[in-house]
């Protein structure tokens, strides 16, 4: 499992979303403007799909889920939520990345239960999920370790969520948190070490 906790391959450029336009559309969408909601979705779709592909890779091929479906499900989950105060486009993408991860984990748990004889209703997300129990178990072990890390050290867990799952670069994370890049990298290495320990039996 330690090998799975590597940084995303390569680094991409920063999210190409106009901050002023994004903020205006987000505020209007959260106020109930369906037209603004549609325009916001169109503006962020490409980046959300990239994040979705990354999320699906993170479960090691255990779930055969189409990125477009995952984006749609996560966006619906986001707009259905209440009381979120998003301060930037980076925050928005991080929240959506977490929603995608939770959806995939929920599907993985359901799929594992089904494999063990549970009586479950299938969804659009899990129609093509292969019965790869080892990969599912590993994905769930990483998620469980991250949940425990969040209770122990929320700052370390945040870096994992933003870098490993949302695909944010260290430079982007540093800018969002008001830190220097070296500090973020130190947190990442510390988080990896903690997660590797938590994933081990008895960790």
Features:
8 helices, 203 residues, mainly alpha
Give a structural overview:
- The chain is 67% helix and 0% strand.
- About 10% of the residues have low confidence.
- Helix 2 packs across helix 3, helix 5 crosses helix 8 and helix 6 packs across helix 8.
- The chain has 203 residues and is an all-alpha fold.
Please write out the topology:
Layout: H1 19-30, H2 34-58, H3 67-79, H4 89-115, H5 133-152, H6 154-165, H7 170-177, H8 181-199
Strand content: under 5%
The number of helical runs is 8
Terminus-to-terminus distance: 13 Å
Order of helices and strands: HHHHHHHH
Classification by helices and strands: mainly alpha
Q: Helical percent range?
A: 55-70%
- Cα-atom Rg, whole angstroms? 17 Å
The largest β sheet comes out as: none
Mean pLDDT: 77
How many beta-strand runs? Answer: 0
- The parts where pLDDT drops under 50 for at least 5 residues are 9-14, 118-131
Shape: globular
Summarize the structure.
This protein is mainly α and 203 residues long. It has 8 helices and no strands.
């Amino acid at each position: 499992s330690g090998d799975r906790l590597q940084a995303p391959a390569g680094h991409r450029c920063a999210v190409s979303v106009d901050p002023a336009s994004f903020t205006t559309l987000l505020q209007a969408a959260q106020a109930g403007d369906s037209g603004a909601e549609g325009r916001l979705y169109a503006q962020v779709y490409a980046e959300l799909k990239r994040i979705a592909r990354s999320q699906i890779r993170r479960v090691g091929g255990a779930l055969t889920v189409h990125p477009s479906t995952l984006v749609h499900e996560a966006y619906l989950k986001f707009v259905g939520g209440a009381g979120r105060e998003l301060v930037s486009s980076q925050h928005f993408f991080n929240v959506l990345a977490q929603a995608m991860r939770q959806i995939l984990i929920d599907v993985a748990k359901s799929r594992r239960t089904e494999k063990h004889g549970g009586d479950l209703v299938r969804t659009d997300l899990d129609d093509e999920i292969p019965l790869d129990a080892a990969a599912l178990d590993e994905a769930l072990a990483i998620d469980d370790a991250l949940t425990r890390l969040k209770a122990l050290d929320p700052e370390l867990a945040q870096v994992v969520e933003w870098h490993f799952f949302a695909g944010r670069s260290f430079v982007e994370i540093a800018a969002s948190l008001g830190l220097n890049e070296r500090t973020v990298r130190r947190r990442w290495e510390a988080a990896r070490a903690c997660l590797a320990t938590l994933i081990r039996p008895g960790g």
